[in-house]
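Entry type: protein chain
Record version: 2
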Amino acid sequence: MATYKGIQGYSVQKLSSDPSPTASVEGELWYNSTSGKFKIAVSGAGAWASATAMNTIRTSSGGAGLQAAAIIAGGSIPLPTLNSETYNGSSWAEGTNINTARQSIGACGTTTASLIAGGYSGPASTVFGEAEKWDGSSWAEVADLNTDRMTNNCIVGTSTAALCFGGNAPGAVAINETYNGTSWTETANLNTARNGIASLGTANTAAIAAGGAPSSTESWNGTSWTEVNTLTTPRSYAQGAGAVTSGLVFGGGGALTEFYNATSWTEMGDLGTGRDQGGGAGGAAGGTAAIAMGGSKPSGSPVITGLTEEWDDPVYAVKTVTVS
C-alpha cells in the first residue's frame, strides 16, 4: 500500500499542540500527538467578530484609522458629545475632547493625524461647517467647510488632503470640496445630490460615494464623478471602509455587508448586530480588515450602541481531518 511519505517524499510533522491558524500555515497538514488526530490549516470566507465595546455609546459619529488603530469622535448619546476615543486593536482609551460637540459628522485620517468636519448640534438645529484636526494629543480648529452640512461618513483622505462630498444642509446636496491642509476648495460636484452616504477611499483623488438617498453609487477620479454599479441592496447611513479597489460597505438599517472590487458589489457575511450611522474604518486594507464602531440599532434596548466588531477576510481555522 502506498504511504503518504512515499507519495509526497516526506513524513507528516508531529506536533503536541496546534499552531495558530494564520496565512503562514494555511494548507499545512500535521499530526497532533496530544489528541491523536490529523489536523490541517484552512481559510474561509470573511466574517465579523465581536471586539471590545467603546467606553461611550454613540451614534452619528466620525470614525477613522485602521482596524487595529482606530479613532472615533463626536456623535450623539443621544445629545451631541465632545467625546473621542482611540482603539489599539484590543481596548478603547478616552482621548482629548473635540472643541465643538456635534453629531452627523465625517472623519478621515489616522489615530495620530485625523480630520473631522461638518455636523449637527441636535436640539439647537444648527448645521456646522467647522473642521478640526487631531495631532495625536489634541484637537485644533482649522478652516471651515465652505458649505455647512451634516457629513455622515462622506469624508475620505488624510488630515492634509481630504475630500468631502454630499451631505445634508439640510436637504441633500451635491457639493464636493477638497482640503489641502489649510483651506477647503469647491470642485466638481456629485452628479446627484445625496445624503446618508457610505464612503470608500484613502486619498482625495479616489473615492466612492455608495448609496444613501438616492441609492445610486458614484466614483471620483480626482477630477470628476462617474456613476458606477449600485449596491446590491440600496440603503442609507451605512458605514464604509477601505480603498476604492477593495472596500466594504456595512450596516445601514440592518446587518448586510458588501464588498467592492472597483467594478462590482458582492454580498458577504452580515454584521453580528445590525446598525446604521456608526463609525467605520479600515484604511487601504478595508476589504480584508475593517472595524464597525457604535451606531443605532433598529430595535432593542439601548438603541444607541457602543458595540465594536472587526472584519477579517479570509478567516483562518484549524480543522480535524476525517475519513468518510
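Comment: The helical segments are 4-8.
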